[in-house]
């Protein structure tokens, strides 16, 4: 009996350790998408840049789409509208492999998440969001313009960037839903996640109850090209969406 219990404990510990190692990340989400841990977990909304483990299921509603990047083989898999995929170490069962573009692999994908972000996520605050519904979570190097979805009733905004150790990198108070990082300040580090925080204020200067936060990573032009399939012009005037 004791031996059986010992074997069971070892087995459960091994399973728990396996669950602690993500094998991929949701790099793109459009429309409504959900995920569940294992085959019997509850379905929950899938978040952009959410880490995925073996056995996790991802499903898309009609009109939705999810792209998963796997760390092991740098492969990208697309789960189309109305489809469901099960994440494995080197593939996503039920999904279509995206062969048109090379994938970034673990170096870029892990940089888009960051190892120290879990402490920030665990804080009692609203769940992290994208700057706008189209924002993929990363930006090409040289980009300095930040834009976000307006907050109802806001007269001014406070936009702040933190590094992975939660030190303030830059902060701006602006009257419109966009801010530009000053050209005289040092450029952003590449392949390292930053945390952004947005607060809104009414005409009287009183803070509004809605606040937002999320992640952004700056990628080199080469890494950005892997994700978009285009040559990134770092001197162009593209804005964040």
Number of strands: 17
Question: What is the number of helices?
Answer: 4
- In spatial order, strands of the major sheet run 4-1-6-7-10
The main sheet comes to: 5 strands, antiparallel
Residue runs with pLDDT of under 50 for 5 or more positions: 1-20, 113-125, 230-241
Mind telling me the CATH class of the largest domain? Mainly Beta
Q: Give the termini separation.
A: 60 Å
Overall structural domain count: 2
By CATH, the topology of the largest domain is Immunoglobulin-like
What proportion of the residues is helical, as a percent range?
10-25%
Beta content: 25-35%
Q: Which term fits the overall shape?
A: globular
Features:
2 domains; single chain; five-stranded antiparallel β-sheet; Immunoglobulin-like; 17 strands; disordered N terminus; 241 residues; alpha+beta
Give a structural overview.
With 241 residues, the chain is α+β, with helices and mostly antiparallel strands. The protein folds into 2 domains: 2-105, no CATH class; 117-228, Immunoglobulins (Immunoglobulin-like, Sandwich), CATH 2.60.40. Helix content is 15%, strand content 34%. It has helices at residues 2-19, 106-111, 117-121, 221-228; strands at 24-30, 33-36, 44-45, 51-52, 57-60, 65-70, 76-79, 84-87, 92-93, 96-97, 138-140, 145-147, 156-162, 168-174, 178-180, 193-201, 207-219. Strand 13 and strand 14 (168-174) form a beta hairpin.
């Amino acid at each position: 009996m004791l031996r059986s219990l010992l074997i069971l404990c070892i087995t459960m510990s091994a399973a728990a350790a396996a669950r602690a190692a993500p094998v991929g990340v949701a790099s793109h989400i459009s429309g409504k998408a959900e995920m569940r841990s294992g085959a019997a977990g509850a379905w929950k909304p899938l978040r952009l840049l959410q880490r995925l483990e073996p056995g996790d299921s991802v499903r898309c509603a009609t009109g939705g789409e999810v792209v998963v990047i796997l760390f092991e083989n740098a492969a990208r898999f697309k789960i189309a509208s109305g489809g469901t995929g099960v994440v494995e170490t080197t593939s996503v069962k039920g999904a279509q492999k995206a062969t048109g573009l090379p994938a970034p692999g673990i170096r870029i994908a892990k940089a888009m998440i960051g190892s120290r972000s879990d402490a920030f996520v665990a804080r009692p605050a609203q769940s992290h969001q994208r700057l706008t519904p189209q924002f993929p979570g990363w930006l090409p190097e040289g980009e300095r313009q930040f834009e976000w979805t307006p907050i109802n009733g806001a007269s001014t905004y406070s936009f702040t960037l933190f590094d992975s150790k939660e030190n303030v990198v830059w902060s701006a108070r602006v009257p419109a839903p966009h801010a530009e990082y000053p050209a005289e300040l040092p450029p952003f580090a590449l392949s390292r996640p930053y945390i952004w925080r947005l607060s809104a204020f009414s005409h009287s200067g009183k803070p509004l109850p809605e606040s937002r936060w999320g992640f952004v990573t700056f990628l080199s032009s080469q890494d950005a090209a892997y994700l978009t399939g285009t040559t990134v012009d770092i001197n162009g005037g593209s804005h964040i969406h």
